[in-house]
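FAQ
Q: What does a multi-component entry look like?
A: The components come first, one per line:
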Amino acid sequence: MVYARRIADQEMTFGVSGMLMLNALVMYDHQTDSLWSQFYGEAVAGPLKGTELQLLPARMTTWGAWKSEHPDTTALDKGEFSPISGASYFFGLELEAGPGEGLPSHDLVLGVVDGTTQRAYPFRYLRHSPIVNDTLGERPIVVTYDGWSAAAAFHRLADGKTPSFRPAGTDAHGNLLMEDAETGTLWRAMAGEALEGPLAGSELEPVAAHLSFWFAWLDHYPQTGLYRLPD
Amino acid sequence: MLWPWSGRHLGLITATTAIVWAASASGGCSAEAPSEARQEQASATTRAPGDPELVQVIGRDDIPALLSPSAVDRDIADSQMRDDEPVLGVSVNGEHRAYSLPFLTQHEIANDVLGGEPIAVTW
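Then the predicted structure of the entire assembly, as tokens:
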């Protein structure tokens, strides 16, 4: 999650408290020693308890896909860091088949929040259905999955209408494409940007969404819905 | 994400994270109250009975957040990352930056400035 560090006129600096709340990271700020839930983006203890941070859009993707979309991008300097051999990028792990009911606790999901409604989209289902047209609460959304490590969610609203998306192959860089049934416009599925067709240049508004382990998402949102493949 | 160091999923701890644990000497010497005591105080004085529990698992700052990281241009980034490296892509006020997720995992939080705005990139 990415948050704005400015609250009113104050610029906050965050550190790692070493504490957990609901199995997720608790930050502290250098200015007031308040404690903050990384998941909720809210101070849970200390002088600023109850203060909320502004959530900024961010996308999990790959370096290759990101730089092809944003040729002028910079990157966080890794300095002398080099990956330790054997370090596990857990996004690449093959998940075992789960039990018939519920979901294995360490399944990766894209958790989506719209107002007071939450739904988790398991990667094990998105693998079979990488473009999902859904309705969350009362708002039509589309969930997209690149088949590996990136997933995103957008509001299905373009040009005043509700498009229905379906997969449309990949571009020369391997980026997932989708098209809408109503106008045939071609879109970048992970970016929600229209490339060609009547709606070219349009951008879908992102929905707040986090990559999470299922058990942690359920800890934070006990009332969450769970997307399943249609029978 | 903190998954690698929370007690319920030790299986995902990487060698690097284990080194962070072994080397942990939280903070240095200080004449003021230990920072973890301040955290406990904040927790004790402002939390209500129904609030979710806060559990101190490792020492404060055992995982060092990035306080003023630098950014590199695309060519240097290409020497630091493979094309298939997972990143968090962020755009603010028209400025774009990629944050390597394996690298960010070592620090959990990057206090950065992008598009003129101070941001916290957390993982």
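Q: Is there any commentary attached?
A: Sometimes. For this entry: The radius of gyration of chain A is 19 Å.
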